[in-house]
Amino acid sequence: MRVLVVEDEQLLADAVATGLRREAMAVDVVYDGAAALERVGVNDYDVVVLDRDLPLVHGDDVCRRIVELGMPTRVLMLTASGDVSDRVEGLELGADDYLPKPFAFTELTARVRALGRRTTVPLPPVLERAGIKLDPNRREVFRDGREVQLAPKEFAVLEVLMRSEGAVVSAEQLLEKAWDENTDPFTNVVRVTVMTLRRKLGEPPVIVTVPGSGYRI
């Protein structure tokens, strides 16, 4: 899942981004509304965590722009105000969810994951394919009943492949969904991660390389 965090309180923004990355999400961070509009115009995000009171371009205008563009991106709006009227106003702008500050990080994560599920074809909460069982919420993976310990990026790659339901996923798509914009697109990080993931999942191999196209399970 790829997430954009838009928050002008830099310490909070960076803390949220770090926490979401530990949950195997690819996260970009910006600190004002103008930068947010630039990012959503270039990258495809599953979820935007959007502070309402932003400098340069207000969060309301960022939300309106996302809606106007017809993007499948879901918006989780944050605000320091917990008034019901503010929550209603934010939702009427087109936000998909609303979370007042201060918030518990576990709740933020749960809401981001729930919104991320809405951007794709509905799938069961626990993904199963080729003897692999992946639970995104618990961040657990089992192969034929054996638990497999994965690093965050390995988990993210496996989740993207599982969600594709047998379709081929290119290296570029994996890079877009599992890494943030600071990753060099010319590195071999995808190939190395897939190799490590294959080894951890064990025999027989379940990740198939499709020459010139990508990978599938």
Structure description:
- The chain has 217 residues and is α/β, with parallel strands linked by helices.
- It has 8 helices and 11 strands.
- It has helices spanning 10-22, 33-42, 59-68, 84-92, 105-118, 152-163, 171-178, 189-201; strands spanning 2-6, 26-30, 47-51, 74-79, 97-100, 127-129, 132-135, 140-143, 146-147, 208-210, 214-216.
- It has a 5-stranded parallel beta sheet, with helices on both faces.
- The longest helix is centred in the middle third of the chain and has 14 residues, at 105-118.
- It is elongated.
- The two termini are 18 Å apart.
- 32% of the residues are buried.
- The model has no long low-confidence stretch (mean pLDDT 89).
